Amino acid sequence: MIDLINISKSYTAKGVKKRVIDRLSFSFPRDKNVAILGPNGAGKSTLMRLIAGTELPDEGRIVRHGRVSWPLGFAGGFNGSMTGIENIRFVARIYGQKTNAVIDYVHDFAELGKSLSLPVRTYSNGMKARLAFGLSMAIDFDCYLIDEITAVGDENFRRKSRKVFTEKLPHARIFMISHAMNQILEYCQCGLLISPEGVWYFDDVRDLIRAYETSNKARLAAQPAPLSS
């Protein structure tokens, strides 16, 4: 469904250039849901944004076979000066959807009420995430990208989100980043382990989780002892 062809990505902070992804080539299986695990700062979310197209690689190409969502909950693409409804209408037109139907769906799902008529710049981060998630669910994608989105909202909203998301699964694939291993086991069959040392693919998600937990223990063991306890 998605092919990574020799992609690299770097960022510069305080004059220091850090290469997060280095000449990575990989073709994801088309019949499995994929987990992406690794320590904080290893490049998981960067890879997700590259797959979505919200960021471009410095080098290489990404080939997408089918319609790929933006990372669920990612609100960076909203125009802050436009209202929630105007943003919904704009995205619906891009994807060739019936605008009124999408607006109605997001209105019911995101539970933002009259705030949909306000500029998005007035929204809290949680409100933006609910808008982005509702808009993602209003459009049928071939592949959904999930980056810890199940934590958005109160318990009722999370329960509703899981329900509608599960309804999408028979007709779509997912890429998931999560620190909740029970969610990884529930939704994914295979995955990538990303670390500063490199990237590894595991065809069985249970092997992936074991490797991830082992690498975490080794990383903790390599840290110096605390100054006090």
UniProtKB/TrEMBL annotation:
A Pfam family assignment: ABC_tran
Keyword entries, A-Z: ATP-binding, Nucleotide-binding, Transport
Ranges of residues in domain ABC transporter: 2-221
InterPro entries attached to this UniProt entry: AAA+_ATPase, ABC_transporter-like_ATP-bd, ABC_transpr_TagH-like, Bact_Polysacc_Export_ATP-bd, P-loop_NTPase
One GO cellular component term: membrane
PROSITE patterns: ABC_TRANSPORTER_2 (PS50893)
One Gene Ontology MF term: ATP binding
Keyword Nucleotide-binding: yes
Similarity remark: Belongs to the ABC transporter superfamily.
Protein name per UniProt: ABC transporter related protein
Species: Chelativorans sp. (strain BNC1)
